[in-house]
Amino acid sequence: MRLEGTMKIDSLDILLEEELKDIYSAEKQLLKALPKMAKKASSDELRAALEEHLTVTEGQVTRLEEVFEALGKTAKAKTCKAMQGLIEEATELMEEDADDAVLDAGLIAAAQKVEHYEIASYGTVRTWAKLCGKEDAAELLEETLEEETEADQKLTELAENFINPAAEEGNDEEEKTAVSRRK
Questions:
Q1: How far from 51 is each of 55, 96, 102, CA to CA, in Å?
Q2: pLDDT tens digits for 151-182?
Q3: Region 28-47: what's the mean pLDDT?
Q4: Which end of the chain, N or C, is less packed with Cβ atoms under 10 Å?
């Protein structure tokens, strides 16, 4: 988390607000990245999951604005460098020449990195909001935390049941081709 200027962070309330600005930026960056990831997905199931999470993320941005309002603050973003890095990694992956199923496996990994970052962030701010007596904000943040956890579980199921086995199947085909060439 990058703290702006020379502001003194001398209370959990201020730290909470700063972290919320960071998360607000992260979600807004994700709104731009998810459509690109969905477009690159070859699996219909993965594409649908990413598109669904785009809709959920739009709601999360609105909910964050409600959190700011509950705290008596104006919703304001400050650049989330962590999300920038995660999106940059996903973008580099999408530019690779990869087999469809293997790219899909990589897209799931990239999306889960994002989900894990968000789970950690929302869990933290929810706890801080509770400690600061901001129950309305804590409840809103808990709702988003649950959505992020569900998204991560959905991606895990897709990876384990469909995408990763399909990517591994591609490895098996390559090995069979290599063996037949050697004969």
A1: 7, 22, 20
A2: 999 999 999 999 999 999 876 554 444 334 44
A3: 97
A4: C
Could you tell me the two tokens for 98? Answer: 């990869």
CB 42 within 8 A of CB 104: yes
Return the structure tokens found at 160: 């384990």
**Which pLDDT score, from 0 to 100, does residue 177 have?**
41
**Predicted confidence band of residue 27 (pLDDT cuts 50, 70, 90):** very high
Task: Give the C-alpha separation, 22 to 80, whole Å.
Answer: 5
The dihedrals phi and psi of 15, each to the nearest 5 degrees, come to -60, -40
Quick: pLDDT tens for 116-125.
999 999 999 9
Q: What is the per-residue burial (b if ≥16 Cβ within 10 Å, else e) of 80-89?
A: bebbeebbee
